[in-house]
Amino acid sequence: MDISTALMLLQSTAGQAAEAAKGVSGVELITIAKCFAAAFAIGLGVFAPGLSEGFATAKAVEGIARNPGATGLITRTMIIGQAITESNSIYALVIALLILFVI
Amino acid sequence: MESIGERIVWRYLPYTDVAIPLGGLNIITVLSTLAVMMALWGLLWLGVRRFAWIPGRGQMMVELFLGGFDSMVSSTLELKTRDANRHYLPLISSLFLFIVMCNAIPVLPIPHLEEPTCDLNCTLALGAMIVCYSVYCSVRAHGLKGHFAAMCGPMWHHEGKFTLGALPGKMVGLGFFLPLHIVEDFSRVMSISFRLFGNITGGAVILTVISVLSYGMVIPLGLSAFVYVFEAAVQAFVFSMLSLIYIASALQHE
């Protein structure tokens, strides 16, 4: 997860493009299925948490507008609550990364 | 792209045939954790080097941090005495400092240094430690019978003699609330560790992908500043606050 990984990836993608010009066999079918699965996993998995975090922020902004003195407490509670809701979309991200890079 | 999921594991000690027990050792995680501890000791030693009753700048930062956490711990735990609240301050503040430094250690441009929390073993260990500590706190505060009564739910307690009318409460407690509590404990371990692991690994993967796409130009610098400063602090804060809430709910069963 550092700059050496990024340089390694830059060099490897050029070689894979030349082999993709032939037909589709078993291993490439798995790669195609992996792409579809990861895209659906992350796409459907972040829809509801994103919506609910927007609602939570709206309620927090309303609360600050009604009582500006409690800004610190409301902001802190909102951050904690959103980090916990965020973990549901993080589970979807972990499954997508698992599908793409480990299986 | 398969190298993102690989981990360097030592199964045998190098240049020997001695097998490492328990399946192996993630050597990058262990060395990164050592580097994290060295960095943390160095920074905190710089902070408390000259102790004065009118604090200088380093001491002021340490005092700000500890004072903030002390007020947070006191307002959440709400125990009877201030010393009882202070009893849990070292665990929560050192958890926060360790996880912040773990997530932000790639700021140092050392070649194979990556975040220890990118390894699921590290976060599972922290999560299991916190849940076991909350169970231990509950047992220490209420005894074994009190902990079992708290596990069995709200309808377990009966007044006076044990008559036939107390039986449905016991049955519901044993049959429904007890398995629910045990599964909830395991799900706490999974959720708290996967939240930390997923956020940090996801941030690192997004940084790698954007670095590859933009050929390492300016954009990864700003994005890595965001990830290594903001997301590290938020995830550490959420982890420590959540562990504090678990300990508080273990101590306040009545």
Topology of helices and strands:
The complex is a heterodimer of chains A (103) and B (254).
Chain A: H1 3-19, H2 26-45, H3 47-66, H4 71-101
Helix pairs in contact in A: 2-4, 3-4
Chain B: E1 9-10, E2 25-26, H1 27-47, H2 57-77, H3 82-86, H4 89-104, H5 120-151, H6 167-213, H7 219-251
Antiparallel strand pairs in B: 1-2
Helix pairs in contact in B: 1-4, 4-7, 5-6, 5-7, 6-7
Name given to the CATH homologous superfamily of chain A: F1F0 ATP synthase subunit C
Q: What name does the CATH topology of chain A carry?
A: F1FO ATP Synthase
Distance between the termini of chain A: 19 Å
Question: Which percent band covers the strand fraction of chain A?
Answer: under 5%
In whole angstroms, the N-to-C terminal distance of chain B is 53 Å
Major sheet of chain B: order of its strands?
A: 1-2
- Kindly name the structural category of chain A: mainly alpha
> Whole-number radius of gyration of chain A?
21 Å
| CATH hierarchy class name of chain A | Mainly Alpha
| Main β sheet profile of chain B | 2 strands, antiparallel
CATH hierarchy: architecture of chain A: Up-down Bundle
Secondary structure tally, helices of chain A: 4
Low-confidence parts of chain B = none
What number is the mean pLDDT of chain A? 84
Overall shape of chain A: it is elongated
Number of helices of chain B: 7
Write down how many β-strands of chain B occur, each being a DSSP E stretch of 2 or more residues: 2
The helix/strand series of chain A, from N terminus to C terminus, equals HHHH
